[in-house]
Amino acid sequence: MEILETIIDFIQNQILGMKWLNEFLGNILSGLGIDLNTRLGGSIQFFIYDVIKITILLCVLIFIISYIQSYFHLKEVRKY
Q: What is the DSSP string of 34-63?
């Protein structure tokens, strides 16, 4: 049961929550000399993280919707 909880926690935090992206951006910005503990540094990290995350999620959503729509032809939809 503990293994299942670990797998679910990993999927929720690392894949869906994109925690890896936040940590990666934090490392890059720290390497550039930006202090992430200040308001400006935290804001920059949050902004870049959100822009990338929203772009990835929109691309995945558009791909899934396009894939589903490819199975429904216009003539069939008009019949319904």
A: --TTSHHHHHHHHHHHHHHHHHHHHHHHHH
- Per residue in 3-57, pLDDT (tens digit) is 988 898 888 877 777 888 888 999 999 999 999 899 999 999 999 999 999 999 9
DSSP three-state, residue 71: coil
Q: Is 53 left (phi over 0), alpha (psi -120 to 50) or beta?
A: alpha
pTM summary value: 0.72
Instruction: Please report how the helices 19-31 and 39-69 are oriented relative to each other, as an axis angle in degrees rounded to 10.
Output: 140
